[in-house]
Amino acid sequence: MADVVKINEKTYRIEDGEVRFFLFCGSEKAALIDTGMNVPDARKIVEGLTDLPLILINTHADMDHISGNKKFDEIYISPAEEENYRESGGQGKIIPIHEGDEIDLGDRILRVIDIPGHTPGSIALLDEKNRILVSGDSVQDGNIFMFGKYRNIDLYIKSLNHLKEFDGLYDDIYPMHGTFPVKADLIDKLLVGANEIKAGKAEGKEENIFGTKAYFYKFPYAGFLCDLP
Ligand SMILES: [Zn+2]
To answer: Which residues surround ligand 1, an ion (CB under 5 A)?
Structure first.
């Protein structure tokens, strides 16, 4: 059962226990950002919150972010994510979005920032007017999945550095897992951890994750689940 939390008149977060997703309302349109892991009726839930025409944007296509996608004919998503989306069973027509695109909800613009690494087509969304950065799974203080197909730690590090170019344009980061909200200093911490892992300097241990062997690096600020070294 999903839990709806009102952040303000135009912004909601929906918690499904495993993952969270968001409803951002403008003056003309509303954007559902992801549809959770166990929420096939995500569309119905948010239609109870707004009468505005609704669009769906996916931060990326991992299974825990697309459970309610079936109720949408079109999805705004990075074209680099299409393979992952279709493999996860994702349906509908893809409206490709790219770095620098501005999705205008009416008096509220969401700017697309490409942050590949966690997945090839991961994006962040900057709502500069409301000083919010939606970070998907890439910036969060839970466990960041970096093992298996599609993950790339070099690109992930590059993307965190790219995100730092937007420092000062937001106050809060809205992640899909872990603590809500988090602050920009988490990006610096994740960069330290990811760089230590890449350099082979971090200590980890083997874990079995859904039948796959992964290597778990636990830092005070977040965890990373990576391929075996
Ligand atoms: Zn996730």
So the answer is: 64, 137
